[in-house]
Task: inverse folding
């Protein structure tokens, strides 16, 4: 009888450990390669667009943990940037955090720069941000 109770106790403990391990899986988005999609881009913008993340207002160009590289798009309202680790060329960025976004677009004959009005949470594999969240710098 004592052996049966000990055996049941051990089985119960193993079950708790097993269920705990299964239910506490790591969030895949915290280690996945990140991208950012900007929607609602005005139609006058075509050609090259560049995106970068920065830590604080006034820090544009100083603290880019990740950059979106240069993407080409032809007169559309949506562009998706794959984020690259600024400190490790050729390596996709897998970080997370709250960042301002820096975005340049090329209307005919100029190069306009925008920054997000507030920090944006970058934690999912893809984060979508409306162009209306940006203000001209």
Result:
């Amino acid at each position: 009888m004592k052996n049966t109770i000990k055996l049941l106790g051990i089985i119960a403990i193993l079950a708790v450990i097993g269920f705990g391990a299964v239910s506490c899986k790591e969030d895949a988005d915290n280690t996945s390669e990140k991208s950012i999609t900007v929607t609602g881009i005005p139609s006058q913008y075509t050609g090259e667009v560049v995106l970068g993340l920065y830590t604080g207002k006034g820090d544009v160009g100083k603290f880019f943990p990740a950059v979106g590289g240069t993407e080409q798009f032809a007169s559309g309202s949506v562009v998706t940037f794959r984020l690259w680790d600024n400190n490790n060329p050729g390596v996709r960025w897998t970080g997370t955090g709250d960042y301002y976004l820096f975005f340049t677009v090329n209307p005919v004959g100029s190069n306009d720069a925008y920054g997000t009005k507030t920090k944006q949470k970058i934690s999912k594999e893809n984060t979508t941000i409306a162009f209306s969240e940006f203000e001209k710098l």
User: Anything to note?
Assistant: The chain has one domain: 29-136.
